[in-house]
Amino acid sequence: MTRIRQLGVEIGSLPTGPLNAITDVAGTRVGHATIIRDDIRTGVTVIEARDGAIWTDYAFCGWHRFNGNGELTGIPWIEESGMLGSAIGLTNTDQVGLVRDTLVRHSVEMGATEEFLLPVVAETFDGWLSNIHSFALTESDVRSALAAASGGPVPEGNVGGGTGMICHEFKGGIGTSSRVVAGTWTVGVLVQANYGLRKDLRIDGVPVGRIIGDSVPLPVDKNGEGSIIVVIATDAPLIPIQCRRLAQRATVGLARVGGTGRNGSGDIFLAYSTGNHLPSRPHGLYTVDLLAHEDLNPLFEAVADATEEAILNALGAAETMTGFRGRTVHELPLDRVAEILAERPGGWR
User: Fold this and answer.
1) Which residues are designated catalytic?
2) pTM of whole model > 0.90?
3) What stretches in the chain show pLDDT beneath 70?
4) CATH of the domain spanning 4-277+288-340
5) What is the structure's pLDDT at 93?
6) What is the pLDDT of residue 325?
7) What is the Cα–Cα distance from 255 to 247, expressed in whole angstroms?
């Protein structure tokens, strides 16, 4: 697995967290279940906040739709309440319901749900590399991802929900990155990248996709439509409208890499803040901390930079894959990328 910084590319000026991953936000856990067999290339990824206590200790949350040809469950209640109260699931388009229902069952078994739960599950389409209509993902797979959820380094590329995904007509998948703001707050991003045309791919501003062109075979009969899910976590004390404002800035990072929000794309971004503790059944008056709007600019910058780098990490970590109907998607040729970037005026920054 190669991360983009191993090629000397440093996005932005803010420092990363120790792992350069969403798990740099204290208490964030990520788990994957990856299914590769026969004509199946799929999986599920889960993100849990607060070391798994998110089910009863909610977090303020907001979301943004850049282009809406996709699915994210639980949105009406997030709009209404501004709260996240479950793990976040990422999977393929056909099995959002399975993941959602398993998260509900899991919460009931833990005793976290007294009446009902509206969990958050998002999708991108992996049906070019995987026989998506075989419904291969099972409840056991979702439970495996939950059981595997942990802090520490996050596997990237062809894993979990990103197993069968394609990005800028190279192999895509899961990627992550983080930034530290003013030595105080951490912003972490995880993406499931499955979007874009090769001609639009830029790395650190360089039109790498156009330069590589078809010297690396393009996926046959693949039209470049697709989706990206971006999950943003922070420990800065934000209220829901501020979380939504952070989610909007993922668009900047996506655009830098070459995402344009095509008609067939589901570009959906979710941001949550663990800076306040919200009981799942609140009553009466309680107080929250709030970072001033005037102090959000560095967080906006952190989201844009970490989103850009997370997408590039997904591309760097993903490996060539052959799947459904013998179709092959090639990995980004990192040696060639390094040559291209070194050839620009002045070489590396």
Assistant:
1) 227, 265, 267
2) yes
3) 345-349
4) 3.60.70.12
5) 98
6) 96
7) 14
